Each structure stands twice: as structure tokens, then as C-alpha cells.
Amino acid sequence: MPKPLIVITGASSGIGAATARLFSSQGHPLLLVARRLERLEALGLPDTLCRKTDVTDRPAVEAAVREAEERYGPVDLLVNNAGAMLLGRIADQPVDEWERMLDINVKGLLFATRAVLPGMLERGAGTIVNIGSVAGRKTFPNHAAYVGTKFAVHAMSENLREEVAATGVRVVTVAPGAVETELLSHTSDERIKSDYQAWKESAGGALDPDEVAAAIAYAYGRPRNVTVREIVLAATGQEA
Ligand code: NDP
Question: What is the third-level CATH fold of 5-233?
Fold first, then answer.
């Protein structure tokens, strides 16, 4: 019996790439989307459609999903993982950084959800995993705009879970603490970046992205009548 299609946004690095490798090793066909196509293709995974797609471009997300479904059948799991963390203070952070985070982390997640949800509701089956954060549950210094987007992810995810619970569609929030990925590298304030790096080291290092992938696979792998609503995981040494 062929395994069903899994869609992963932001699969060109970090958690998304680790999740793509894990589900591919389990035999799933994949649709991987991100802006860096060469990084998606470099994963070299079988039965995988790689598409250069910006999650803020709703028609492009929709088109990639339709193309993948024509090739591999209906989407059974969407991992809403694409995200940006641009740390800064509200008083002086460039405003376009807020806009980028809101567009990618909040609107991008909604766009990908809309591309798969009607089909899942029709079939009465499917799982959506939204990658939140410990920063979607509590605040951190220099994180104000980012926590705004991640609190939004947690709220939308739980609200969607309630909305579709009776239909058989599952909605899961996976909330990691610090993970060793490229996420921090996009912050433009060098001082904030080095302070964050020092904080991660003082906690004995961050999670390996493979651990987050394993948590996603755990939730997805439960029987269809079980929804793991939320998984919060962080390095043992991370206090906050
Ligand atoms: P990375 O920076 O390594 O990965 C981010 C991914 O998102 C990349 O594949 C990137 O691809 C993609 N992405 C960014 N913008 C867009 C866009 N506009 N359209 C499509 N894809 C996009 O970081 P992580 O793996 O850490 O981040 C993954 C998720 O995990 C994020 O939602 C993040 O908020 C969350 N998270 C991370 C934590 C951490 O400490 N690392 C902690 C808690 C949550 P490309 O640039 O090629 O488009």
C-alpha cells in the first residue's frame, strides 16, 4: 500500500529538512516548498516534488499543492514549518522585519492551510502540524514581534483544531525551544544575535532538528482517533 503525500513548507533547512528526510525514509512521497529550490533538490529524496514557492504567494502555494496531488494523490499531512525569526526591539527594529514575519509566519501558514483543508474535510481525514514555539507560549527579550507571530500560530492552531475536530481532521501544534538551525542567522542586529548565541550555549546547546522531526512523526503516527494537541520540547538545559 503506497504511503500518502506529505507537504512540508520551509524544507530547505533546519527542522523542515530534517522532517523531510524522516518522512521520506518512512516511504512517503513529499511536496517540499521553499524559496531556495537548489537546497530542496540537494536533499536528493525519492518521490519528491520540489517547488520554489514563497509561502506568502497564495496562488503559488495552491498551484504547488494541486500539482503534487495530481502526481501523488491527496495530501494527508501538512507540516506548516516555514518561518522567520528576526529579533529586535519595537523602538528601533526595521518595520519591514515585522511585516516579513507576519507575512511568512502567520499569513503563509494560513495560505498553506487553505490549500489542503477543503480536501481534508471532504475526505474526513488529514493532519495539519503547525510549528509554534516556546516563544508562542511565553515572552523573551528582543522577541516582541516574533512572539506576536508565534502566539498567533498557537491561537490559530487551537482554534482550527476546535473548528474541525468533529470532521476527523487533526490539528497539532509542535512548540520547540531553541533548535540548532539557520533561524537566528537572519536577525540583522549583530549584538542581539551574539547575545542569543551566548544564551543558547549557556543552556548547554540547542535541540537537534531531528528531535523536532521525531516529535512531528510521533504525533502523525498516532491512530486517527487520537490527536496529540500540543508537544512542547526543548533542550534539558533550557530554563526559560
Ligand atoms: P531555518 O531558518 O533553518 O528554516 C526556515 C525555513 O523556512 C527555510 O527552509 C526557509 O526556506 C523557509 N522559509 C522562510 N521564509 C519562507 C518563505 N517566504 N516561503 C517559503 N519558505 C520560507 O529555521 P528553523 O528550521 O529553525 O525554522 C523552522 C520553523 O521552526 C520556523 O517556523 C521557526 O519559527 C520554528 N522554530 C524554530 C526554533 C529554533 O530555535 N530554531 C524554535 C522554535 C520554533 P527558504 O529561505 O529557502 O525560503
Answer: Rossmann fold (3.40.50)
Mutate to test the pocket of ligand 1, among 53, 101, 113, 181 (most ligand atoms within 8 A of CB): 181
**What pLDDT sits at residue 210?**
98
> Helix crossing, 14-25 with 209-221: angle to 10°?
50
Distance CA 228, CA 226 (A): 6
50 C-alpha to ligand 1 centroid (Å): 16
Residue of the CA atom closest to atom 18 of ligand 1: 54
Say if residues 5 and 30 touch (Cβ distance below 8 Å).
Answer: yes
Residues (pLDDT < 50) of the chain are: none
Q: Determine if the pTM surpasses 0.90.
A: yes
Best CA proximity match to 201, nearest among 180, 187, 175, 186? 180
Domain assignments of the chain as residue spans, ordered by start: 5-233
pLDDT tens digit string along 23-60?
Answer: 999 999 999 999 999 999 999 999 999 999 999 999 99
Q: Which of 43, 46, 36, 49 is nearest to 7 (CA)?
A: 49
Beta sheet of 126-131, edge-to-edge order = 48-52, 30-34, 5-9, 75-80, 126-131, 169-176, 230-233
